[in-house]
Amino acid sequence: MRALVSSFSSCCSIRRLLLTIRGTNFNNVVIRATMEKRSEEKLETVNLKNIPNVNKLQQLTNADPSGGWEKSWELGLTPWDLGQPTPVVLHLQQGGALPNGRALVPGCGTGYDVVAMASPERYVVGLDISENAIKKAKEMSSSSPNANCFAFLKEDFFTWCPSELFDLIFDYTFFCAIEPSMRSAWAKRMCKLLKPDGELITLMFPISDHVGGPPYRVSVADYEEVLRPMGFKSVSVVDNDLAIGPRQGREKLGRWKFVAKPSL
Q1: I want to staple 13 with a disulfide (CB 3.0 to 4.6 A). Which of 1, 8, 47, 251 is the partner?
Q2: Could you tell me which residues come within 8 angstroms of residue 128 by beta carbon, excluding any fewer than 6 positions away?
Q3: Angle at CA 29, nearest 5°, toward 24 and 34?
Q4: Is 149 in contact with 123 (CB distance < 8 Å)?
Q5: Beta bridge partner(s), residue 102
């Protein structure tokens, strides 16, 4: 239920990408250069003004909240999926700016960010409610050299009970995919799944004034409203300068520390 288009042309593509980026100094200019062609190819699909795709997605998910996401994967209506790792995730990973330990990506979709974040020091779990999404993620990642450093599970984020808690959770296009009335429940789950002093990274999108969803519009205040009562402290909220072209100016990167467990 959470990730925003189609996969690389083959499993080998992601492997070549990961092997290429290993040991490379990723500054903003380099990442934009390597992602420029892919971003241009996806421009129409990920743009919220692409009414036909967005309208069809909304019709599916609003008519059948439980099965609409599965149907959207069956029909290829996945405008949230970049078809590649999120540029800022690569930047944080290569810069050593992600906590080690256990990480979770709810609404992982095709799983590019899961694979990009995984390392011998960081075991990453990709979670999605769609069986088709998990199937695609496993197919995409089958040739990854870090295959023992991540796993994909078909589970409902709101009811899943893992055997261990997490040091890091990364949310991108999941918060905006759920009904706004469920955002407090989202924050409570983040509280329950993170270890004390764990970190939540939220890539906030879409920051806009559009009506309806999914994706539903978000703001920094929307995150603060539900996270602060759950014991989260904002470490930083900055514009995502590495957002792909269609999302420039509509994304912010938020980093939150889980500092106090509330009594629920």
Answers
A1: 8
A2: 1, 2, 3, 106, 107, 108, 109, 134, 137, 152, 153, 154, 155
A3: 65
A4: yes
A5: 123
Which residue type sits at 64? D
More confident residue, 224 or 62: 224
- In a 10 Å sphere around its CB, with 0-12 CB exposed, 13-18 middle and 19+ buried, how is residue 135 labelled? middle
Res. 192: pLDDT tops 50: yes
Quick: pLDDT tens for 97-128. 999 999 999 999 999 999 999 999 999 999 99
Q: CA–CA separation, 136 vs 2, rounded Å?
A: 14
Strand-pairing partners, residue 172, are 203
- Looking at residue 77, its pLDDT comes to 80
Average pLDDT over residues 197-222: 95
* Spatial separation of the C-alpha atoms in residues 156 and 84, rounded to whole Å: 24
Query: In whole angstroms, what is the distance from residue 118 CA to residue 195 CA?
Result: 19
pLDDT bucket at 38, cuts 50 / 70 / 90 = very low
pLDDT (0 to 100) of residue 141: 97
The pLDDT of residue 71 is above 50: yes
Tell the burial category of 125 from Cβ atoms under 10 Å away from its Cβ (0-12, 13-18, 19+): buried
Tokens representing residue 252 in the block: 């912010």
Cβ-contact 65, 130 below 8 angstroms = no
Residues 1 and 64: their CA atoms lie apart, in Å, by: 13
Residue 253 has φ and ψ, to the nearest 5°, of: -100, 115
